[in-house]
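Appendix C reproduces, verbatim, an entry submitted by the partner laboratory led by Prof. M.T., so that reviewers can inspect both the input and the predicted structure.
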Amino acid sequence: MKILVATQKPFSAAAVAGIKEIVTAAGHTFAALEKYEDAEALKAAAADADALIIRSDKVTADVIAAAPALKIVVRAGAGYDNVDLAAASARGIVVMNTPGQNANAVAELAIAMMIFMSRGQFTPATGSEIMGKTVGIQAFGNVGRLVGKKAEALGMKVKAIDPFIPEDKIREAGAEPAATLEDLYAGCDFVSIHIPATPQTVGSIGYDLITKMPKGACLVNTARKEVIDEAGLEKALEERPDLKYVTDVAPGGYEALREKFGTRIFATPKKMGAQTAEANLNAGLAAARQIVDFFATGNTRFQVNK
C-alpha cells in the first residue's frame, strides 16, 4: 500500500523519519508531499495513494474524488473538521484522528494563556494570580482533563461540563460538575473551551454566555474559531470592559479588535496548541501505527465517520 504524508505545515524531520520507518517496516510504500501550494498539488499526489496522513490539510470531496485507491485518512491530531466526512463515508473511506497525542501540549498552552492574561500580557501593570481562582472546562475529554489537573496543581478550583461524560466520572477526575453551561460560565473566573466544531457547536458561544461570566473573567479558546459567535463576543467586550478573551485561533478582524480592546484580547500568530516537538512526533507516529494496524487487522478504533 502507498501511504502518503501530505502536510502544508510539515512534521518535524524526526517525525517524518519515524513515520517512514513504521510504514516501510510493515512492507508499505512511503511518500511525502510537504509545503505544497494548493489543492491541485494534493490531488495529484493522492491520485495513487491508499492512505493519507495529514495535519490541518483540507481533504475535500474533490481531493477524495481524485484519489480512487484511497482507503483511509488519518488526521494527526484531535480535530478533524478539515476532512469531508460525508464524502469519505460515501466512498467507504475510513477517517481517523489520533486522540490524546497533542493533549498535553494544548493543555499547557491553555494554562499559559490564563497566566499571560492575568499578568496583563506581561506589561508593567499590576496583574493578578490564578491561584484561588476557578476555571470552568467546557468539554472534559483528553485536553480538558489535563487542563483540570494542571489548574488544580496551581491551586485553582476546577468545574467542568461535558454532555458525554457522567457527573460521577467528572468528580472522579477531580472537578466539580456544573449543572448547566450557563452555570459554568456564571461561576468561573476562566472558562477554557475544548469543544469540536460541529453543526451543534458552531457559533454556540456568544453574547448571552459570555456576559454571564463574573467581573474580570477571561474566556480561553484553544479549540476552534468557528465555535465563537464573533459578533456576540465583540458586543460582550464592548458592554463589559472587565472581560477578556484569549485564543489560539484569531477571530475575524483581529487587528481592529486588538486596537479597540487592547490587552483585553490576544490571539496567537498561528494555531500553536499542538506546536511542540513532542506533540508533533507523537501524533505523526500514532497516525502511522494506526494505518499499519488498519491494513494488517482492520482495526478502526479511532474512526470518526462511523
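The first helix runs from residue 13 to 25. Additional entries are available on request from the coordinating office.
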